[in-house]
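Protein entry
_____________
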Amino acid sequence: MSRFWSATVRALQPYVPGEQPRLANLVKLNTNENPYGPSPRALAAMQAEIQDTLRLYPDPESVRLREAIAQFFGEISIQQVFVGNGSDEVLAHIFLALLKQDKPILFPDITYSFYPVYCGLYGIDYRTVPLDEHFALSIADYRPPNGGIIFPNPNAPTGRVLPRAQIAALAAANPDSVVVVDEAYIDFGGETAVPLVHRFPNLLVVQTFSKSRALAGLRVGFAIGHHELIEALNRVKNSFNSYPLDRVAQAGATAAIEDREWFDQTRQAVMRTRAILTGELETLGFEVLPSAANFVFARHPHHDAERLAQALRSRGIIVRHFRQPRIEQFLRITVGSDAQCATLIAALREILSA
């Protein structure tokens, strides 16, 4: 700990991202990356952007991309769209612009582990709300006075999803608080809450290009909500980095969201593989939570999760294990390609029979 650190830095407990190991012939099922790759149209758009114009600053307002996002969802204006350098940056701006309030904010006890990190960074008081015994979120638990509510839908790392009607009920029950729905995985089986933003000025929906559009390496995320919420985010962005998205990112993301055919084709493939993977795991004796994401959350009643993760790693297969109360016996397994999932199942069959 350096004597030059600020008091804020001294108190921080930074987020730990999923491991990115450099191993040959690795079956990487730990960070929920899309196995099918980006839209060919997105790749072509990015390649076309790599020219002399890179010496010029990008559009600080990302107008073309915001127009494409608005058009994709329909009945959304460009003034209702905010874009940032990955949904993590968008979320960081949300915490500072909208969730730094006098009352504590609420989020689930088992959820995206970046949320408490943002609270520590910005000095935001928070309370965690326990998921029920089935690891589901109950909106009835989010009625106490609060400075805001945030949760992923589907939740991470559980994969469980709330229907849109329950999100509407939650927003209606908290009219004086911002309700942030983090939809990083929504395209793999859930209903987006975007249509609700017209009814609820306190509702903000966050999405990413990292998962269903296979652009995790590009870092593009966005939020949709009432124009006053978006204005708050822009005030923070323009006080921090007025050029968050470069020319290549804007071109690639715009082409990706315009390529609906590739989007539908690849996400449907992930969902088909998820159903097969779930069935295979259950055949091996695993309990698998219902998932609407591009991963499954599973535990075996007779085998320790950490040991299973280590045994898989020794075979060149990486999955995510969380040393966290209530879920320390679960593994989060990305839905990879059919071949990757078959390799995983063969390895688990060998490990469990040893």
Q: What stands out?
A: The chain has a mean pLDDT of 96.
